[in-house]
Design the sequence.
């Protein structure tokens, strides 16, 4: 693809009738470069003089935006030398890196960059595509033509100053809480000492309870074993007696009775697979005088009938109703009650034994019966010694759990006695206090001077480590005032950073010291190390946890806020930053007003110079 001619204009579009004409005069050159001054003398020396400012250039690059002695200028990446410094900010992209157009939108956004000074606020860099697009992106308005955007930097500075003042007030409150914690440390020490003696007494009592529970459990188990042996012996004796009785009964039976018993056994086996309907029909046939229905029961003895009725005993109110319905249908009417339902012909021969086998006997009681005894209570009543052994085992487990709990408390107190709680022991009241934070599908519980856990949705806990102490680490960045503070607000942190940027144009502030709470030696990972957690500790009004995550496998991170992390030095840094903003506001207001007046004057001068200049030909333009 053939290179574009400069006559095509910006971004490769056909050039308009020279909206931004270039001449060799120094006045026009200065105007098109966005200088903050009026027309310059039309001399050769003026053309080679470095301008006071170049639109869109960052302060650290200002020295490189000056013409060579011969009037040429080199792209910042060294890829090309332009014939004239006048080609800088001429609204045409000559350099591959876009460095010749820091103050226009001529170069692609991937290479061009515009710098907003934003005096009174934070400096800002924009893509060149946002320059002169009709939107005020810089608070000082320099990304748009003069007069287009009002300077809003002081308004932003005021908001930051208010945020700094509020944050300083939060710091003062947090420091007051820290002082209260330090004062409470003495009482905490007394409580710890008193609890130590009480704990030893409770441990001694718990050990005695475990010994007594173990003895009771052994005795109860022996009694239960004896009870089981006695029950087994009684069951065996009963089985033997039943066998003997059955043998004697069989020996005393007449041949007819033996045959009837065999027939009954055969009938019982034949009716074992009956359905409810079939069983109802069979029983109904036993109650009716209808010849067809009675034929089914012909030739059967009373004993056979009794045996046939036994399997038909209703097991529920529903079966009872179906049987009654079958009888009523066979008789042609529903029996009014159990007494009326009994066959009249057999009433004279009705016996208590038949009453027991009657499927309808006691039906009212079956419908309104007392609930059976619970299985656990029944088992305990039948096996009292075994129930006592189970109770003794539960008591032993409870005694052992209590002893383990007390021993863990003593071990924790022994560890905590070795920890460093600060020069004034302000951290001591937080010993054992916990804070929770959400991270993904888990809840992270961080207990200071104790242990950290990851808790899943079902309540299962995974140890992330035991407390190792507080480490002091250095962090590069925004200085004390820029650290996360009492409110934990990102806006407040930005306000402090902005104050530092506005108050000084020197190099980056020195590294700051931060606290990190360290937990290690947690549950092992599958095929990996034991879990560990490091929590950055910052100033806060109360104990809180946030930002829980797992940046590496089985290595966890979080943020803790606590009044104990607040320092007087950080508060003083905030107060100094706020005071500097207050002092500089009046001066900046005057300077910003002067800058705006100069920009407007330069714009007016540019318009006047452009109106009186002759339009060069494209060929002359290319020769520049």
Sequence:
């Amino acid at each position: 693809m053939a290179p574009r001619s400069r006559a095509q204009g910006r971004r490769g579009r056909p050039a308009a009738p020279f909206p931004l004409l270039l001449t060799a005069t120094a006045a026009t050159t200065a105007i098109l470069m966005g200088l903050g001054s009026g027309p310059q003398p039309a001399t050769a020396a003026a053309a080679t003089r470095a301008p006071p400012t170049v639109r869109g250039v960052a302060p650290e690059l200002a020295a490189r935006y000056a013409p060579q002695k011969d009037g040429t200028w080199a792209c910042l990446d060294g890829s090309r030398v332009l014939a004239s410094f006048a080609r800088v900010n001429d609204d045409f992209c000559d350099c591959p890196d876009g460095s010749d157009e820091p103050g226009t939108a001529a170069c692609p956004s991937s290479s061009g960059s515009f710098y907003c000074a934003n005096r009174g606020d934070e400096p800002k860099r924009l893509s060149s595509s946002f320059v002169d697009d009709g939107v005020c992106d810089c608070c000082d308005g320099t990304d748009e033509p003069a007069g287009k955007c009002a300077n809003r930097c002081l308004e932003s500075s005021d908001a930051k100053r208010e945020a700094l003042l509020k944050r300083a007030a939060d710091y003062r409150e947090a420091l007051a809480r820290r002082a209260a914690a330090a004062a409470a440390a003495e009482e905490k020490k007394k409580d710890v000492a008193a609890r130590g003696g009480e704990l030893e007494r409770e441990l001694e009592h718990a050990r005695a309870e475990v010994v007594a529970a173990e003895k009771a459990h052994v005795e109860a188990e022996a009694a239960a074993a004896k009870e089981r042996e006695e029950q087994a012996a009684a069951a065996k004796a009963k089985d033997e007696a039943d066998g003997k009785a059955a043998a004697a009964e069989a020996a005393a039976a007449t041949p007819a009775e033996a045959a009837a018993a065999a027939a009954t056994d055969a009938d019982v086996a034949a009716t074992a697979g009956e359905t409810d309907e079939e069983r109802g029909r069979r029983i109904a046939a036993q109650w009716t005088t209808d010849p067809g229905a009675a034929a089914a029961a012909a030739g059967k003895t009373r004993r056979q009938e009794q045996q046939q009725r036994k399997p038909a005993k209703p097991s529920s109110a529903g079966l009872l109703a179906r049987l009654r319905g079958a009888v009523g249908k066979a008789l042609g009417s529903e029996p009014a009650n159990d007494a009326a339902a009994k066959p009249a012909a057999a009433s004279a021969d009705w016996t208590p034994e038949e009453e027991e086998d009657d499927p309808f006997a006691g039906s009212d009681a079956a419908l309104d019966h007392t609930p059976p005894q619970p299985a656990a209570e029944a088992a305990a009543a039948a096996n009292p010694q075994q129930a006592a052994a189970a109770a003794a085992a539960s008591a032993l487990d409870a005694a052992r759990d209590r002893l383990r709990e007390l021993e863990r408390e003593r071990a924790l107190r022994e560890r905590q006695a070795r920890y460093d709680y600060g020069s004034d022991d302000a951290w001591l009241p937080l010993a054992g206090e916990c804070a929770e934070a959400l991270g993904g599908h888990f809840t992270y519980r961080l207990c200071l001077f104790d242990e950290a856990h990851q808790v899943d949705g079902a309540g299962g806990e995974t140890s992330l480590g035991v407390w190792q102490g507080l480490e002091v680490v250095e962090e590069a960045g925004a200085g004390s005032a820029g650290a996360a503070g009492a409110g934990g607000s990102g806006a407040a942190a930005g306000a402090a950073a902005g104050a530092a940027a506005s108050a000084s144009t020197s190099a980056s502030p020195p590294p700051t010291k931060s606290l990190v709470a360290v937990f290690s030696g947690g549950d092992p990972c599958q095929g990996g190390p034991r879990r560990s957690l490091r929590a950055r500790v910052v100033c806060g009004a109360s104990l809180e946890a946030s930002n829980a995550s797992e940046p590496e496998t089985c290595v966890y991170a979080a943020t803790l806020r606590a009044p104990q992390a607040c320092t007087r030095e950080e508060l003083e840094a905030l107060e100094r930053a706020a005071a500097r903003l207050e002092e500089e506001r009046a001066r900046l207001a005057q300077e910003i007003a002067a800058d705006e007046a100069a920009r407007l004057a330069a714009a007016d001068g540019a318009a006047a110079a452009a109106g009186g200049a002759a339009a060069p030909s494209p060929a002359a333009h290319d020769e520049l």
